[in-house]
Design goal:
2 domains; three-stranded antiparallel β-sheet; 8 helices; mainly alpha; two-stranded antiparallel sheet; about 160 residues; about 45% helix
Length: about 160
């Protein structure tokens, strides 16, 4: 059985746990794992994710970069349906040497990634497993959660 099949089984397994207890376990694992991971050695999130930008975030960063808002939008944003704005490049324009060049002013989605500290972990399992191979923090939290919950792993092909 492959790792993908194991993770599908684990996702189903997690559905049987009380949400608040699972949230607490994930937060504790995240707090022990995150400090051990140097995100600047990876940068996969900035290299491979679509980044959403709110109106206030775009306004703020345009000001920080001393750019007119229309020029900022033309250079960095793509406007989608329903007013949704996205950074118009992958990897992100603001990534240099695996570091965010606007870190102090980065977008909310960037600040909260990988979002393991947020409540309702069970409701975001699809997203976490989507990033499982992308983010070392998510990978290690999931693998340690399997161990902590005594999930029966099987040998991989």
């Amino acid at each position: 059985m492959g790792l993908e099949t194991e993770n599908i089984r684990f996702k189903e397994f997690l559905g049987g746990f009380e949400s608040d207890l699972l949230d607490q376990m994930v937060v504790e694992l995240d707090q022990s794992i995150s400090p051990k991971v140097d995100c600047t050695q990876c940068g996969n999130c900035c290299k491979s994710l679509m980044i959403t930008v709110s109106e206030p975030e775009a306004e703020n960063l345009a000001e920080v970069l001393d750019m007119e808002r229309t020029r900022f939008d033309e250079q960095y944003l793509e406007k989608g349906m329903h007013g949704l704005m996205l950074i118009n490049a992958i990897p992100c324009h603001f990534l240099s040497d695996n570091k965010c060049t606007v870190y102090e002013h980065r977008f909310e989605g960037c600040k909260e990634f990988p979002a393991l500290h947020l409540p309702h972990f069970q409701k975001r399992l699809f997203t976490h497993f989507m990033h499982y191979h992308r983010c070392p923090i998510i990978f290690n939290v999931m693998e340690q959660l399997k161990t902590k919950l005594l999930f029966e792993k099987q040998a991989h092909d």
